[in-house]
Design goal:
A-D-PHexomutase_C_sf, Alpha-D-Glucose-1,6-Bisphosphate, Chain A, domain 3, 4 domains, metal ion binding, 15 helices
Length: about 450
């Protein structure tokens, strides 16, 4: 395995690549040793998803850490937010073996410091890569005088109890909910978290299978929620919930099978979190969530703070501002009560509590949080990202009533519409998101901007 491969393997926020082509258990062992050196930990916690390669990679990482004298707690099969729970509750650095919604041949590591604080390129991941690269050339580091212990611990019940302590579900009306786990870790966590609640759960694809035999475990792709939408209608259910492969994101459809925008979920949960905190608090949202989000936050007494796209920026701003909640267009939801980490399961519980606490259908409930028309994210392959962004700026900059900002790519705003164009960090793509007060205006703006991007 060439040293250069690590440049493709170690991403901005995690490790991710094809097994065994790009990485294997021998490299996982080096990552384990590097992780404990960078974090300075004396003990760590490790979990893994249902992919065929996950147990072996997690075990190798544990061996690498233990060889450096560090005690390891293995929590076994878990969702990513269950690993964050363990890191927070046990106050230990953690490593989660998952490639989220990527195909079966992929695997990866999401790492955090004690209290679920993220490890990214600027917070330790670059150093972990450097150490691993050095050891690939010179051989594994010398073992410590004492080998650490490796013990097993089941945290599922404690994780479920903690989540249910954060949302009052005691007085909700009975609800019928279809849950699509996509053969991912939601099939492991949902029965325990939802158990004992007044819910009639209709399970779909709860069998843990890292080959994803039914559909890709990425609910943001409309193709992957078709089965859920049909089942909700066939069952006359109150709502449907889909989780991604490592079950840290949730996506919601209403009683008609229509997708509920993650921005609407962000606004709904934000209003509930603000009520819980006496109508005061900071709410984080990224710059491509709907105008609805900051509007609802202000209407409920809160302070909205806008950030760049990406969980490292959200989590950093959560910590800096003392925010109580944060949401992204990608259906990641972050809670101060959950160590500022993201948990789709807690967002799902909020939706159930909000729906079950009143008599109307979900479509009517979310209507107040879904006020504008959005394009969704549209990707375009370009030969020169900077050139196309400059062309967009030159087109819209001189226009009256237009404001520009470059917090993350280029955002162009007027009183009736806005759009953002961001370059991908890893591919020759520009990503467009547009929103307007009505469908016709949104379509016009969207098509104008795509014409410039694709010229």
């Amino acid at each position: 395995m060439a040293v250069a491969d690590l440049s493709q393997l170690v991403k901005a926020y995690d490790v991710r690549g094809v097994v065994p082509d790009q990485w294997d258990e021998s490299l996982a062992e080096l990552f384990g040793a590097a992780f404990v050196e960078v974090t300075g930990a004396s003990a760590i916690v490790i979990g893994h998803d249902m992919r065929p390669s996950s147990p072996g990679l997690a075990g190798a990482f544990a061996r690498g850490a233990a060889a450096q004298g560090v005690d390891v707690t293995e929590i076994g099969l878990c969702s990513t937010d269950q690993l964050y729970y363990a890191s927070g509750a046990l106050n230990l650095p953690g490593a989660m073996f998952t490639a989220s919604h990527n195909p079966a041949q992929y695997n990866g590591i999401k790492m955090c410091r004690a209290g679920a604080a993220p490890v990214g390129q600027d917070t330790g991941l670059a150093q972990i890569r450097e150490l691993a690269e050095g050891w690939m050339e010179s051989g594994a580091p010398a073992p410590a005088a004492r080998t650490g212990t490796i013990t097993r611990r089941d945290t599922l019940e404690d994780y479920a109890t903690h989540l249910r302590s954060l949302v009052d579900l005691t007085s909700i009306r009975p609800l019928k909910v279809v849950v699509d786990a996509g053969n991912g870790m939601g099939g492991h966590t949902v029965p325990t978290v939802f158990g004992g609640l007044p819910l009639d759960v209709v399970p779909m694809y709860f069998e843990l299978d890292g080959t994803f035999p039914n559909h890709e475990a990425n609910p943001l792709d409309p193709a992957n929620i078709v089965d859920l939408q049909k089942r909700v209608r066939d069952e006359s259910a109150d709502l449907g919930i889909a989780f991604d492969g490592d079950a840290d994101r949730c996506f919601v459809v209403d009683e008609n099978g229509n997708p509920v925008s993650p921005s609407a979920i962000t606004a709904l949960v934000a209003s509930r979190e603000l009520a819980k905190h006496g109508g005061k608090g900071t709410i984080i949202h990224n710059l491509i969530t709907s105008w609805s989000v900051p509007e609802v936050v202000k209407e409920n007494g809160g302070t909205p703070v806008r950030t760049r796209v990406g969980h490292s920026f959200i989590k950093a701003e959560m910590a800096k501002s003392g925010a109580i909640f944060g949401g992204e267009h990608s259906a990641h939801y972050y809670f101060a009560d959950f160590w500022n980490a993201d948990t789709g399961m807690l967002a799902a519980l909020h939706v159930l509590a909000a729906l079950g606490g009143q008599d109307g259908p979900l479509s009517a409930l979310v209507d107040q949080y879904d006020r504008y028309t959005g394009s969704g994210e549209i990707n375009s392959t370009v030969t020169d990202q900077a050139d196309r962004l400059a062309a967009i700026k030159a087109t819209y900059g001189p226009q009256a009533g237009v404001t520009l900002d470059e917090l993350d790519g280029l955002t162009v705003t007027t009183t009736d519409w806005w759009f953002n164009v961001r370059p991908s960090n890893t591919e020759p793509l520009l990503r467009l998101n547009a929103e307007a007060r009505d469908e016709a205006t949104m379509a016009k703006v969207r098509d104008e901007v795509l014409g410039i991007i694709r010229a």
